[in-house]
Specification:
single chain; Rossmann fold; 2 domains; binds NADP nicotinamide-adenine-dinucleotide phosphate
Length: 268
């Protein structure tokens, strides 16, 4: 299927690793021009270098960063068609999962919302005037299955993602009539650095359950989260759905929330 993304301009946040890297690679493969935003580049992103890729080094915890990244995209590529707000998860310096409601402090809550919600709000504010100029504008916000299925951990993260999913629906109501489609993709646990790094989620769960990292990644996490496929999601599986939503082939899809979660959500 031709996603009709050739020459389209996309900004992808959190693009150096994990889901964002897979999205960047996929959009480039589809012929799009991509502005990849992260604090640092990295070997895998560097390997994609070419005339259609621009890396913008920016810390999205800085309130000016989202706007500067969007402006850079317009300056270099002449417009904007797609915004993928992918960066999120544990803010710099934090580790998830974090157990218990009383564990995160006020500062933890603030950082979580700064990274997962306010940075997105700022990117949206900067991007929307340019997206209104596009004849095929699409915003994809990467939320989480925990937005709709909270549990007794990561309270601050779950609440920030729930707000993002809610915000997305409202934006669709305002902007779909003006030609900008807005959707969320809500992953379940995805095999990214967040899970696999030393000290990452798999290690934290292993420590809490008396297991080890590999056992958590291969079986433990899937069992704990009742994943019906029995395994974590792969980043490319999320990226493929994001690419389809970015594409004009999804012209009638807006205000929707797509679970790519190995069967994590049980509600209809
Ligand atoms: N992995 C999961 O299990 C899972 C599940 C549900 C939802 N999600 C959501 O999926 C999205 C992507 O997660 P992921 O697991 O793919 O992430 P990841 O592999 O940990 O990658 C994070 C990306 O964000 C960038 N980043 C981190 N802090 C940043 C900052 N302050 N400013 C700019 N960029 C920053 C990182 O690059 P630098 O470090 O160089 O900045 C990297 O490119 C997030 O919104 C997350 O909430 C993930």
């Amino acid at each position: 299927m031709d996603l009709q993304l050739t020459g389209r301009v996309a900004v992808v946040t959190g693009a150096s690793k994990g889901i964002g890297l897979a999205v960047t690679r996929t959009l480039l493969d589809e012929g799009a021009r991509v502005v990849a935003v992260s604090r640092k580049s990295g070997g895998e992103l560097d390997a994609l270098a070419g005339p259609n890729l621009l890396h913008v080094a920016a810390d999205l915890m800085d309130p000016d960063a989202p706007g500067l990244a969007v402006e850079r995209a317009v300056e270099v590529f002449g417009g904007l068609d797609v915004l993928v707000n992918n960066a999120g998860g544990p803010p710099p310096g934090a580790d998830l999962p974090r157990f218990g409601f009383t564990t995160p402090t006020d500062d933890d809550w603030r950082d979580m919302f700064e990274f997962n919600l306010f940075a997105v709000v700022r990117a949206l504010r900067a991007a929307i005037p340019h997206l209104l100029e596009s004849d095929a504008a699409s915003i994809v916000n990467v939320s989480s299955g925990n937005a709709r299925h909270p549990g007794p951990m990561n309270f601050d993260y779950n609440a920030a993602k729930a707000a993002l999913t809610n915000l997305t629906k409202g934006l669709s109501e305002e902007y779909a009539p003006q030609g900008i489609r807005v959707n969320t993709v809500s992953p379940g646990p995805v095999r990214t650095a967040w899970w696999t790094d030393e000290g990452g989620a798999a290690d934290i769960i292993a420590g809490a359950t008396g297991s080890d990292r590999d056992a958590v990644l291969e079986r433990g996490a899937a069992e704990m989260m009742s994943l019906t496929t029995g395994r974590l999601v792969e980043p490319q599986e999320v990226a493929d759905v994001i690419a389809l939503l970015a594409s004009p082939r999804s012209a009638s899809t807006t205000g929707a929330d797509f679970a790519v979660d190995s069967g994590f959500l049980k509600e209809i």
